[in-house]
Each structure stands twice: as C-alpha cells, then as structure tokens.
Amino acid sequence: MVPKENCLIIFLVRKYFNMFKKNIFSLILLQSINFLSISFLYSSPEHSQRLLVFHNPYIHSLDGVSFMIDGVAIHNILAVIKKIMYIKDGQRVDTKVIGMYMLGNERLSIRQLAELEKENPHDPRLGAILKEAKNDFIESNKHFIKNIEPVKKLILSLIQEFCERRHKSDSIILRWGQARSGGEAEVFDTNVQNFANFDLFLNDLVLFLKDLINSCPKAREQYREWYKHNKLFTEQ
User: Which of 19, 29, 123, 228 would bridge 143 by S-S if both were Cys, CB 3.0 to 4.6 A apart?
Assistant: First the structure.
C-alpha cells in the first residue's frame, strides 16, 4: 500500500509536468509528437554518459503505480524533454537549424544565440531577445511554482542529489530549487544573465528529467509496452 502522502506528492509532481507541457510549449510551432521511443533518453551525445538512478525512496515506492509514476507519466516527461531540447537546440530542417527566437531574418535557438553572444557579447540585439526568452520561461512556470509548493522538499531533494552526484554544485537549477517561496522567478532572472547561462540551465534541466525517468524502471517498461502497442496500431 502506497502511503497517502506519497500519492499526493506524485499527483502534484505529475500535475506539474502536464501544466508545464501545456503552457511553455504552446509558444512553439513544432510538429506533434505522438510516440517517442524510450531510446530517445540515450540518444543525445551530450547525455551519453550513464544516467543516474536516484536514491530517494519516494520515487521507488511509486514507480509503476497507476496515475502516479506510470507509463503515461513517462510519455509526458519525454515530450517535455523533447520540446525543451527544441528551445535549446532548435529543429533541424535539411541542413538548417530552425530556432524559436528571431534575430534579423533568422529563427535561432538558445544554443545558437549563446554562440553568437560569445563571438559578439556587446551585440545590443541580444539583450532584448534574452529578456523575451527569460520572460517566456518565467511565465510558463507560474503554474509549476504554485503547484510545487506542497512537494518542494521532495523536488529539492532530487535536485540536490542530482547536483551532488553530477558534480554540479554551482548549477542554476539548484539555486532555483532552493529559492524561498515566491522567489523562484527572481532567482532565475538574477542567475540567468546571458545565453550561456540559459543554455546550461536548460541542459541541466533536461539531464535531471532524464535521470528521473531512468530512476523508474517499472514505469519505463509500461511505457515501452504502450509504445509498441500504439506503434503497431498506427502501422496497420
């Protein structure tokens, strides 16, 4: 029997993922993602290192539990990861990368903007785009900040474990998680002062979510079965 307090924790965490998926990515013109293979977790060159399995007992006690951390939750998190990576890295169309933010006649990703910023840190156009991108992220996280409060200790404990085991003691996501109630946007705004910071923040966030999925083998197996069933169905 799963303790009631654990059920509440995962209900709210999963609610966040659904809210996050709905709000932040309504801004993005991206083809609909119907089915994502679990192998996507291990496909990024940046994240080719071994993924973590969190030690937190709450995660393991609810792994595979319906309406908690189950196959559907894994699908939602994978979709969030995929779309965060679109913001960060853009979408490749033929040989060209198409990003989310306009600079001149091009749509650039956060990573591309970070590269331009490195080459020309005093480009006056970059400041306005950075402000727009940060505001997009802050506005899209309002629901998360509101709903995470009852389970903030759990999320923070996972982020702390992630940062400790990944040797990322200076990661912005840790400072973001440690912010006082209501101060998350301010901490994010203060710490993300350039596109290099923003790119690193998104990179750490994606890796954290991948580690979270990797910590739930029962839910991953449920998702694999769901994926195979739906993939076969669509091919018929």
Answer: 19
